[in-house]
Amino acid sequence: MRHTGQQAIYLAGPGHGGSALVAAGYLEGTYSEIYPHVGQDEAGMLRLFRQFSSPGGIPSHVSVTTPGSIHEGGELGYVLVHAFGAVMDNPDLLGIAVVGDGEAETGPLEGSWKGVSFLNPERDGAVLPILHLNGAKIAGPTVLSRKDPAEVRRLLEGHGYEVLEVAGADLPGMHHRFAATLAGAWSKIRTIQHLARTGEWDGARPRWPLIVLRSPKGWTGPEQVGGVRMEGTWRSHQVPLSGVRDNPEHLAMLERWLRSYRPQELFDATGAPTEPVRALAPEGELRMSASPHANGGLLTRDLALPDFRDYALDVPEPARTRAESTRRLGELLRDVYRDNPDSFRLFCPDETSSNRLGAVFEVSGRAFAERVTADDVAIGRDGRVMEVLSEHNCHGWLEGYTLTGRHGLFATYEAFAMVSASQTVQHGKWLQEAGRLPWRARVPSLNVLLTSTAWRNDHNGFSHQGPGLIQVVLTQRGDVARVYLPPDANCLLSVADHCLRSRSYINLIVIDKQPQPQWLGIEQAVEHCARGAGIWEWAGTDDGAGDPDIVLACAGARPPGRRPVPGAGLRRGGHHHHAVRHDGAQPRLPLPPCHGRDQQRQAAAARRRRPDGLVRAQARRAPGVRGRAPGGPAGGARLGDEGLIGPDA
Amino acid sequence: MRHTGQQAIYLAGPGHGGSALVAAGYLEGTYSEIYPHVGQDEAGMLRLFRQFSSPGGIPSHVSVTTPGSIHEGGELGYVLVHAFGAVMDNPDLLGIAVVGDGEAETGPLEGSWKGVSFLNPERDGAVLPILHLNGAKIAGPTVLSRKDPAEVRRLLEGHGYEVLEVAGADLPGMHHRFAATLAGAWSKIRTIQHLARTGEWDGARPRWPLIVLRSPKGWTGPEQVGGVRMEGTWRSHQVPLSGVRDNPEHLAMLERWLRSYRPQELFDATGAPTEPVRALAPEGELRMSASPHANGGLLTRDLALPDFRDYALDVPEPARTRAESTRRLGELLRDVYRDNPDSFRLFCPDETSSNRLGAVFEVSGRAFAERVTADDVAIGRDGRVMEVLSEHNCHGWLEGYTLTGRHGLFATYEAFAMVSASQTVQHGKWLQEAGRLPWRARVPSLNVLLTSTAWRNDHNGFSHQGPGLIQVVLTQRGDVARVYLPPDANCLLSVADHCLRSRSYINLIVIDKQPQPQWLGIEQAVEHCARGAGIWEWAGTDDGAGDPDIVLACAGARPPGRRPVPGAGLRRGGHHHHAVRHDGAQPRLPLPPCHGRDQQRQAAAARRRRPDGLVRAQARRAPGVRGRAPGGPAGGARLGDEGLIGPDA
Q1: Which residues 224-243 of A have a C-beta within 8 angstroms of B?
Q2: A491-502: per-residue pLDDT in tens?
């Protein structure tokens, strides 16, 4: 970087290898700039050591607290998806992603090598994966480290890479060979990009370089402890020397090990890094630990958003027209693509058209770096709509894209959204932790749209039905995750506009894509969404003069279609003499807070006394939220699909 | 199969290709044997067609209702993990697994090719993957179908397979070539197994055969519809011809297409399959649709279980000793391994020892078909403990293992259990649907043990904390999924014994692995677990004479450690004049039913009037269950970690 000016970020996959990146950030000076109490002196260094892997301190993996990171090395498997997402539409960025050989065994990681099949060297940056085979995980060897090296090479070449290898344990030879290989890889990447950007590219998917690094696990640590081999085995995982307080022999080994780094050459008498150490780092934002790409809020520009009202559906009267609510959103997203050619992408497992969002293809095709044919439609190397049949890739790419300051939406089938639920959970934790760190600027929200809902999959059956993700998101903090259940097309437009402007949330939007009754004109929709709930006077007979006898409360992804006036069912039940009120809620959960929109009115509406009589809940979504998949309620009494509940439910 | 007597089951990965397997089961006669109303005549065939992909009928993918299947093709990605799990300890079984090229893009599928790195040809059966590259998914091409075929070959060879290829669209040439390739693959498999089973194997991982089949998507269907090419493109996905009722041209094309199968040669005048068609199928249980391996309850034998009381921890007095509760379970599992050498396996992402279950290694090492070294411990081709750093593989292998009638346990870290949460959900749905089909025999339960709990990861931080899976399992039906929170080692033994005897449940057991206070002697534990909750008289001052003033209710994975007598905190609060009662609950959720154990007593205990005064809940697990990760409560008042709640909470 000092020589080339290359902008780069690191992504460290291996679990407990965070110490290396924390140390690097400290030596680069970034750590002390961000955390002044961890200064570059003896007291600061002591603090740096003491907080490591301690309750209330920092984890032993790379985490939110580590400067320069957009990737947490806790739940393994996502280092490459984050790297690929980060470099999309980021032509000058190099994502250096270290894949541990333990992590390489996970499904999400194995499914993410194919990021190169979606990368465009002209417009996107590059990812340099470094597969670090040190041979072991917690308690045993790994598959890749014990396969014939030729087989590993074939595997990675099969994924589309040019494999460069560095192996050994000799010093300083390993350093020199690795540095030379790194320089070679960089040069290959720059050549690919240069050809593509000067019009000399034939359009075929490049063979991007990849480094396989083989070094012993626990390298340079104690070779043996208590007569048992340590270096090069799983025993050196995390804590190679235990009980150093009480075991003088272990303490001596630890001291010998640490002195082998020759600290007297690295630090001066005050504990500050010496000039040769400082001189190793590039300047300012070229330091990987200080890259603004890894603190993406610093680079975030607001999206150029058209007025969502321009896409409104004309609803002269409630429930008289039916429409596929997501089609209008597709038209809005088409123009978001048009007006933000390098800062917005849609991510979807092959369902963009199925989700009625196909209007985006008028502006951008699907991204694809592999061969296309004459029969293909809206797909190719210039496309920027990301379709891959992998929720893990879609979700992870979007995380990488937003954490580096760009905007996006992940649209997926409701039942299969659980595939990437753990990513949603971990991303929510990242956002929550980041919110506590003043130096981390807020990033674009991770927006998730579910449109193929549980209620529309009768023909596909139970496996395709399950409102699981909403349940997962509801367990996250309200200042990190929000759930939106817009009842119709115009409310969806209002909600989408809000979500695309928001920062550092997980926004989950659930709405059915099939033709559904439309309820609200655009201005009514805006007011309804701003309040989060509304009283639909036209659906009841309450004149506001007194307390109604019956309140019909409706919340969910699928408003009552079969009974456009929800009171009808009750009237047949003999309650037609009562005044009824219909509450059409568009819940933004968890509550509170309420995004600052008219919180009082919502709270007041919720507080209104409920009548003691029968309450009928048109709660299409509620069964899932309350703990049930549509397969049927459990033993106890539950709020069923359009089911009756007592007044205290 | 007719010629060789080979026992085989099919596993169909591709989503909407279920029609092929339903049709095959119908032609083999199995369908009518299982569903007599779908007979082999005209009326039965009409029913077969009408129920297909219809609400209340059967899905268009292979599902629970399909005879011969242990795999549902809804949520894609698990066809190989199910196949590998099915053939473990099943030396005579061949699992023929068709991988769709859409499914092949998913992370879980890409992570599952390496099943061969854990297979032993001497003791296990074989998996024959057929990667069917038809070129497209719902709306576009797939990565593998558009890569250079040489690259695909390298990829699969890198995974360790010998790649056999069949490609084309000529008929009957394709049939002949595929049949010959299938025979060749079978012969290679038998040779590998024969060598291994006659002592002529050198111990190296075999190169198992794999077939890559390239045929056009929508093959033999209409080539063009409305002037647009259909066959060979994504347009032929699922419904190649629409609107046949109203479009006579499409109707004619449909008729032409269906007549191309020459139904007059396949069926007689009554609609029954003709003799040549019947003669194609093997006899009885050799029919893949009738294999008992795919209805594993038929083959399930009870485990030989030692008396769990023999592993009891001596607890002379409550809370005076501390112990790692899972160690005793490890000793029990060791003997389960010993006594069930071909019908029990433990599945774990590299954490068996970390979870204190390492005693199993006294009997069985870890399974590993790759190279082992002199430094390795308890690992090799004879091992049967399944460690792979992939929750997807662990979970899926166990599903395949139990659905074919064998027993097992999946032990994993609590926070990362969400990685495979969608598998848990889908397996629960499978069990629920299977429970409605009288012909599906009940199978061993899928047991999941979480021991590295949220509360023990302060040093690893927030990413390692999250009681997510319990939340997911709680949303499943109580007759399908159960949650166990044993408070100590002896309760864990009782719970484990119960779970290993149970059938067709998902049993989630959560217990901390670190040294914790021990509360109950083994007989007390047995009674406590049978009741599901207990009044711990020794922890309170209630003499049973009247209603207590204060009830301390405790439920969770981590009983109050810092205050062995939970009243202590309250006494400091000035409540020491009140009589207190301590309820130590070991909830088995969802409730009811309660496995028939003393349901009345439990219900009675729960009904006892709570006092109106302050209630202190030592609910270590409750925050997660009630919707919070340990990162902190959301805006509203919640039950916090050891937090105070009001009497109406």
Answers
A1: 229, 232-233
A2: 999 999 999 999
